[in-house]
Write a structure and sequence with these properties.
By secondary structure, this protein is of the alpha+beta class. It contains two helices and three strands; from the N terminus they run ααβββ. Strand 1 and strand 2 form a beta hairpin. The N terminus is likely disordered.
Length: 109
Amino acid sequence: MKSHLKASRNENTLDAWAGYAVNADDAARLASLIEGLGPGALLKPVGSHAGNGEDPIFDLGGNVAEWVVTKDGAGKAVGGSADRPVDAKSSAAPRPDYVGFRIVAGDVK
């Protein structure tokens, strides 16, 4: 599932904080401002945004980039986060305090 690509622009992403689709240059300029806020300052509580469509999964976009295992077994952060743009072409990596993984509990079809 490429849940990070289905994210709504109004979720907790850098794009939402800025009010527009942030490009890599803008993200670089905003990085020092975000750093000054302290670790995880832009994070919101889990469950702040309901799942998209029929998915019972919360916070599909933003807050933290998703930590995934690639085909070669390496780990990689993907998707937007509260401190990085949603743009999949961006090479900017989120800070470690803005990377997480998704835990799904209960019956998932």
